[in-house]
Amino acid sequence: MRFDDGSGGGIFSYLGGWPRGRNVYKLTNGTYTESQPDDEDIAKIYHGGHIHPLTAEEEADLTAAGYGDYIEA
Question: How would you label 14-49 residue by residue, b for 16+ Cβ within 10 Å and e otherwise?
Fold first, then answer.
């Protein structure tokens, strides 16, 4: 059974739109990416749309990688 036949009148049309979070993956080599890598290359996952307690080091690393605008105090 499909909930939405693509006509725009399905059950999901009531949900509306909202900003979506983006997953950020810290790789074992210390770099960050939003493209899902192979499991063995992932050191940590920051799931978009969720609150993640950060250490000072994680905050500094994420800011240096260009994600500082998305970190809330």
Answer: eeeeeeeeeebbbeeeeebeeeeeeeeeeeeebeee
Q: Are strands 32-33 and 24-27 parallel, antiparallel or unpaired?
A: antiparallel
What is the rounded distance in angstroms from the CA atom of residue 17 to the CA atom of residue 40? 34
**And the tokens for 61?**
């690393």
Residues in the chain: 73
Question: Whole-prediction pTM value?
Answer: 0.72
Q: How many helices (H) and strands (E) does the chain have?
A: 1, 3
Confidence at residue 1, expressed as pLDDT on a 0 to 100 scale: 46
Average pLDDT over the chain reads 85
Does residue 5 register a pLDDT over 70? no
